[in-house]
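Lab notebook, design round three. We kept the backbone fixed and only want residue identities now. Task for the bench partner: fill in a sequence for the structure below.
Input structure tokens:
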């Protein structure tokens, strides 16, 4: 089955081949709303994450060149579907997704927790970061471009937050498991993931996206309950959803929240 991206590319004129010195890799148009054409540009960049921006110039996708081709295609499809839906329903959302830019002294709010950002520069040709109390201290190598500097900040902050929240999430997972499921959890990890909020393997390895930490506690609990339910049924059958509903009858509200706020939760 073709993805939205594949179908769109097949339906439009041949893609414009850009000059070799430009980062634009794909350029075409899609129809939104009442059929109004909106230009789309896709950039493949040396960045940590993926980003969608909609403005007067159309839809701009910035895709991590570090991902494999399959993941890139998946992310493009997700971002295009979101942009097409939002621009069709709410054109006033234009300019609502600027790329996050970190400034020394700003406060990053992650859920109910505030983190103060401190950005320093060093001559060591190496960038690092650590959390000290509620401060995220970033030491950047001098000489980075503005784009690379922002991507590096995002990467380092995500690493810090993964380390900070992992024991908290692990404890909550075990608490919920002991209360409702009593199944074996092999391991718990956190990473920055765009394509999922949580994942559970058949061996009991659970991975939670640190982006989830921006969500309210009840929504976080839903994702944890969802992944724990996969220890009972490793599918999305009616039996699986019954297991989820037995623990959280209002789980559909949490799902709706994640669908609505998906693109607000990023680093």
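Proposed sequence:
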């Amino acid at each position: 089955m073709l993805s939205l991206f594949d179908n769109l590319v097949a339906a439009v004129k041949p893609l414009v081949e850009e000059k070799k010195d430009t980062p634009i890799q794909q350029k075409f148009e899609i129809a939104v709303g009442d059929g109004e054409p909106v230009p789309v540009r896709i950039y493949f960049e040396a960045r940590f994450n993926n980003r969608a921006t909609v403005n007067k110039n159309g839809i701009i996708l910035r895709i991590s060149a570090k991902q494999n081709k399959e993941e890139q295609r998946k992310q493009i499809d997700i971002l295009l579907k979101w942009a097409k839906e939002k621009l069709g329903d709410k054109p006033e959302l234009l300019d609502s997704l600027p790329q996050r830019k970190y400034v020394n002294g700003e406060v990053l709010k992650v859920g109910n927790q505030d983190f103060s950002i401190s950005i320093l520069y060093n001559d060591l040709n190496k960038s690092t970061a650590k959390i000290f109390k509620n401060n995220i201290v970033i030491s950047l190598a001098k000489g980075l471009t503005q784009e690379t500097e922002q991507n590096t900040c995002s990467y380092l902050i995500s690493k810090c937050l993964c380390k900070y929240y992992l024991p908290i999430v692990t404890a909550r997972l075990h608490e919920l498991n002991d209360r409702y499921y009593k199944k074996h959890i092999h391991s718990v990890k956190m990473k920055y993931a765009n394509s999922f909020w949580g994942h559970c393997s058949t061996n009991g390895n659970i991975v939670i996206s640190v982006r989830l930490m921006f969500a309210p506690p009840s929504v976080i609990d839903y994702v944890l309950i969802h992944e724990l339910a996969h220890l009972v049924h490793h599918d999305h059958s009616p039996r699986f959803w019954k297991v989820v509903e037995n623990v959280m009858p209002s789980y559909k509200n949490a799902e709706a929240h994640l669908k609505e706020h998906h693109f607000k939760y990023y680093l």
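Keep this in mind before ordering anything: Residues 9-22, 92-98 have pLDDT under 50 and may be disordered.
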